Amino acid sequence: MKPVVLDTNILLDIFVFNDERASPLKQAMMDGDISVIASQKTLLELADVISRPLFKLDEAAQASILAQWQAIVGLHDDSNLATAPWKCQDPDDQIFLDLAYQLKPAILISKDNALLEIASRAAQENILITSDYNAFKL
After folding, report:
1. Sheet holding 4-6, edge to edge
2. Distances (CA, A) of 123 to 49, 65, 106, 129
3. What's phi and psi for 83, nearest 5 deg?
4. What are the chain's domains?
């Protein structure tokens, strides 16, 4: 089973918006059926994003989201993370690309166009970058 990396937009769909399209992915994570991996930097990215006023989440809700995510995700040390050979246009998303590159073969689920544009090049390194919430079934 390939490890799965989820970018922050996907995590927002799962934990903030409760997007129905992400339900099978969330259930597979909760049941431990897939290996979902994060790093300290990706956790910090999530914490930063959910703290923004746009989401109107109080500190308790933010802490709950982070606790839920940390309870089901495997943590990969990113202090010596190899840099992917491709640069993402959005520097905040580079960490997800680097993490997937380190874990290859891997699946990176993202809705971010800057990451999706790299998909064909990443596929040559056995990294699937997709917006398909059900890609974890592959």
Report:
1. 4-6, 106-109, 127-130
2. 28, 31, 10, 8
3. -85, 130
4. 4-137 (3.40.50.1010)
Q: What are 57-107's pLDDT values in tens digits? A: 999 999 999 999 999 999 999 999 989 999 998 889 999 999 999 999 999
- Say how far apart CA 111 and CA 55 lie, in whole Å: 18
Helices within 16-58 (DSSP H only): 23-30, 40-50
Alpha-carbon span 76 to 23, nearest angstrom:
24
Residue 56, classified by CB atoms within 10 Å of its CB into exposed (0-12), middle (13-18) or buried (19+), is: exposed
Sign of torsion over alpha carbons 41, 29, 107, 15? negative
State the amino acid at position 80 in one-letter form.
N
pTM, two decimal places = 0.95
Task: Indicate the pLDDT class of residue 121, thresholds 50, 70 and 90.
Answer: very high
